[in-house]
Specification:
By secondary structure, the chain is α+β, with helices and mostly antiparallel strands. The chain is built from six helices and 15 strands.
C-alpha cells in the first residue's frame, strides 16, 4: 500500500502512507492538520478507508489490540450536513476504553466532544457480507449504555466524509456503563436518552445538554449494527466474538472541557458517567 498514490487535479500527488502518517503523527504531537479532502479524489470513500486501514495496521504493529468498531454518521441530519447518504465506521482499540469513574485527561483527545450511545458486546463472529437483524440478535451477548468521546485530528473540526473516514471516523475514547443487559425485553428503538452536565462541572450551563432516542440511530441501533457487520466483512475485517460495537450517537454531541462531568441516562438500559480532568 505504501506505493499507492492518490492524484487530485491542481493539488498534486500524495501517497496513502504519507497522508496516513500525517494523521498518525497527530497522536504524538497533539497538533491538528488541514483537511485531507482536497488531496483525495473527490467522493472516493475507498481511498479514505485505505488511509484508515493503513493506520490500523500501523497501530496493530505497535501492539495495540483491536476490540471493536464505532459507527458514525447515523443521524440523517448529520448526513445531510455532510452531503452523504450512509454512515461510516472506525476502529476501537483496547487503550481507548476508559473505566467508568476513572478520570479522563482532556489532552488525550483532540478537540473533544461527547455523545451518548447504545453499545453491543458480541458473543459470536459475524463474517457474512449480507447480515440480518436476526444475525445481530443471535450474536449480541450484552447491551450497555456508552459514552463516546470523539475527537478530530482535522483542524477546527472542518471535516467532510472523506476527512472523518480517513481519521478513524473521528474516534477518541469510550466509556461503557451498566448494568449489562440481554436484548430480551429491551425496546432499543423507543429508548430515550438524556445527557446532562453535572452542576459541579466548570463549564457554565449545567443540566441537560443533549437528548435523543434509539430511532435517531438509523431507525434502530440494530439497523446500524447490521450495516456495520456487512460493511466490515466486505472490507476483509469482520466482527468477532468479544467485539464492542458503538452503534452511533442518539443525540447531538457536546464539547468537553476539563472539569466537566457528564451522565447519560438511557431509559430501560441504565446510565454511564464520564469525568474529565
Amino acid at each position: 500500500m505504501s506505493d499507492a498514490t492518490i492524484e487530485h487535479a491542481g493539488v498534486g500527488t500524495a501517497s496513502i502512507e504519507q497522508l496516513a502518517r500525517e494523521l498518525r503523527d497527530c497522536y504524538g504531537t497533539g497538533q491538528t492538520i488541514a483537511p485531507l479532502r482536497t488531496r483525495l479524489p473527490i467522493a472516493d470513500i475507498d481511498t479514505a478507508y485505505a488511509i484508515q486501514d493503513f493506520n490500523t495496521e500501523a497501530f496493530l504493529a505497535q501492539g495495540r489490540r483491536l476490540v471493536g468498531r464505532k459507527i458514525g454518521l447515523t443521524s440523517k441530519v448529520v448526513q445531510k450536513q455532510l452531503g452523504v447518504d450512509r454512515p461510516d465506521f472506525g476502529m476501537l482499540f483496547a487503550d481507548m476504553a476508559i473505566g467508568e469513574g476513572d478520570p479522563i485527561p482532556v489532552s488525550r483527545v483532540h478537540q473533544p466532544k461527547i455523545e451518548a450511545e447504545v453499545a453491543l458486546v458480541l458473543s459470536r463472529d459475524i463474517d457474512t457480507e449480507s447480515p440480518t437483524v436476526a444475525d445481530l440478535l443471535l450474536a449480541t451477548a450484552y447491551v450497555v449504555p456508552a459514552l463516546e468521546i470523539v475527537g478530530s485530528r482535522i483542524a477546527q473540526w472542518d471535516i467532510g466524509i472523506l476527512d472523518t473516514v480517513a481519521d478513524n471516523a473521528s474516534s477518541g475514547l469510550f466509556v461503557l456503563g451498566g448494568p449489562a443487559r440481554r436484548l430480551d425485553g429491551l425496546d432499543l428503538r423507543n429508548l430515550q436518552m438524556t445527557l446532562r452536565r453535572e452542576p459541579d462541572s466548570v463549564t457554565t450551563g449545567s443540566g441537560v445538554v443533549s437528548t435523543g432516542c434509539g430511532a435517531a440511530c438509523l431507525g434502530h441501533p440494530l439497523n446500524a449494527a447490521v450495516w456495520l457487520a456487512g460493511e466490515v466483512a466486505r472490507r476483509g475485517r469482520p466482527l468477532m466474538a468479544g467485539d464492542v460495537i458503538l452503534t452511533g450517537a442518539l443525540g447531538p454531541m457536546v464539547p468537553v472541557t476539563a472539569g466537566d462531568t457528564f451522565v447519560a441516562q438511557l431509559s430501560g438500559l441504565g446510565e454511564v458517567t464520564a469525568r474529565f480532568v
